[in-house]
Design goal:
- The protein is mainly beta.
- It has a domain at 4-221: Integrin alpha, N-terminal (Methylamine Dehydrogenase, Chain H, 7 Propeller).
- The protein has helices spanning 60-63, 178-181, and strands spanning 19-25, 34-39, 46-50, 56-58, 76-83, 92-98, 111-115, 122-124, 137-143, 152-157, 165-169, 174-176, 188-194, 203-208, 211-217, 223-227, 230-231, 243-248, 253-257, 272-277, 281-288, 291-295, 304-305, 309-311, 321-323.
- The strands form seven sheets. A four-stranded antiparallel sheet has the order 1-2-3-4. A four-stranded antiparallel sheet has the order 5-6-7-8, with no helix packed on it.
- Strand 9 (137-143) and strand 10 form a beta hairpin.
- The radius of gyration is 19 Å and the shape is globular.
- Mean pLDDT is 84; it is low at 298-325.
Length: 325
C-alpha cells in the first residue's frame, strides 16, 4: 500500500516532480536499499538515503548528485544506472540528460558521477573520461562487453537520426567504439543486456523507432563468470538488491548490484555477469542486507543457489558485436 508520506519521500515544497528514472542500490553498503530518482523538465534530481528503519532522507545536494543549478533550472534527466566502472569497490552513477544546444547555458548535460567515498560525495567526471556531449542522450547501460574485467558503457539517443554510443572502458578513459563494433541504433530508448546464446559474453537488445534490435556479441575476450543467485524464500526470489563481489586470482575485485529495472523502463538479465580477462575466480561474496556470504565454487549454501559457469575463451581482446538478422 501507498507509503510515500510514511517513509518521508515527499517532494520539496509540495510540488510533484517529473520522475523518469528511479534506480535502487545499497550504495553505502549499510544493508538497505537507497533510491536515486532522475527528474525531467529541468527539475532537481533526488537521492533518497535509507536509514534502515523505514525512513528516507533526500541527500542529493549533500552528495552533489542533484544536478547543476543554473538560473533556477536543472536538467532533463531520462535514464540513470549504478555501476562500479573504476573497480574501486563502490558504486558510481551515470545520469543521462536531454540537453538541447539552444538551452545549453542552463540545461544539464549527461553526468558521470564518480563515487569518492560514502562520506565525501560524488564528482562529475564525464568530460575528463571521454564521454562526449550529445543533446539527445536517453538510456545508459553498464556491462563488461569484452570480458576484460571492467564495465563498458552503452548509451542510446532519442529523436530520428540521433545515434547511440558504445564506449569501451580502457581503465583511465572511455573510447568510442560504436562504428567499430557495429552496435549502432537511431532514436533509441530502452536497452538491456543478456547472454541469450550462453556463450559467455553479453548480448545487447535495444528498442528504437524501427522496433526491437538484437545484437549478438561475437567478442573473443577473456574468461568469464555468470551467476544466477536465487533465494529459497518466497519473497524476493530473484535477490533484487543483493550485491555480488568477485575476487579473482590477480587480486582484482568487481562488484555488481542485482537490480529490478533501470532508466526509462528496461531491465537486463538477472544472471550476473563478470568478465575476468586472463584471471580465474578465487571467491564470490554476496552481501544480503547486513549479512555477508562468502563462497568458493565448491561451497554450497542453503540460502542462495548458484548456477556457475566458468570457461576460458582465449586471450584475444577483439571487440565486435553484430546484429542478429
Amino acid at each position: 500500500y501507498e507509503q510515500t508520506e510514511a517513509t518521508g519521500m515527499v517532494p520539496p515544497y509540495g510540488r510533484h516532480l517529473c520522475g523518469r528514472s528511479p534506480v535502487a542500490c545499497d550504495f553505502d553498503r549499510d544493508g538497505d536499499l537507497d533510491l536515486y530518482v532522475g527528474n525531467y523538465r529541468l527539475q532537481q534530481n533526488q537521492f533518497w538515503i535509507n536509514d534502515g528503519g523505514g525512513w528516507f532522507d533526500n541527500q542529493a545536494a549533500w552528495y552533489k548528485v542533484d544536478g547543476e543549478l543554473v538560473d533556477g533550472w536543472w536538467g532533463h534527466s531520462i535514464g540513470c544506472q549504478w555501476g562500479d566502472y573504476d573497480n574501486d569497490g563502490d558504486f558510481d552513477l551515470i545520469v543521462c540528460n536531454l540537453a538541447h544546444p539552444r538551452y545549453i547555458r542552463f540545461s544539464n548535460r549527461t553526468m558521470l558521477y564518480r563515487n569518492d567515498g560514502y562520506d565525501k560525495g560524488f564528482t562529475d567526471v564525464r568530460r575528463e573520461l571521454g564521454i562526449k556531449y550529445d543533446e539527445c542522450h536517453s538510456e545508459p547501460l553498464w556491462g563488461d562487453l569484452d570480458n576484460d574485467g571492467d564495465l563498458d558503457l552503452f548509451i542510446t539517443s532519442v529523436y530520428p537520426d540521433r545515434r547511440s554510443y558504445l564506449y569501451r572502458n580502457d581503465g583511465d578513459r572511455f573510447t568510442d567504439v560504436t562504428f567499430l563494433s557495429g552496435a549502432r541504433v537511431f532514436n533509441g530508448w530502452g536497452c538491456a543486456l543478456a547472454d541469450y546464446d550462453n556463450d559467455g559474453d553479453l548480448d545487447l537488445v535495444t528498442r528504437n523507432n524501427g522496433g526491437v534490435e538484437l545484437f549478438r556479441n561475437d567478442a573473443r575476450g577473456g574468461n568469464w563468470l555468470e551467476l544466477t543467485p536465487r533465494s529459497i524464500k518466497l519473497t524476493n526470489q530473484c535477490c533484487i538488491g543483493v550485491i555480488v563481489e568477485v575476487v579473482d586470482s590477480d587480486g582484482g575485485r568487481q562488484i555488481r548490484n542485482i537490480e529490478g529495472g533501470k532508466g526509462a523502463g528496461s531491465q537486463s538479465s538477472l544472471v550476473v555477469h563478470f568478465g575476468l580477462g586472463d584471471a580465474s575466480v578465487e571467491k564470490v561474496i554476496y552481501s544480503v542486507g547486513e549479512r555477508t556470504i562468502e563462497k568458493t565454487r565448491s561451497v554450497k549454501n542453503m540460502n542462495i543457489q548458484d548456477n556457475i559457469e566458468f570457461r576460458a575463451l582465449g586471450t584475444d581482446q577483439l571487440f565486435q558485436i553484430r546484429p542478429v538478422k
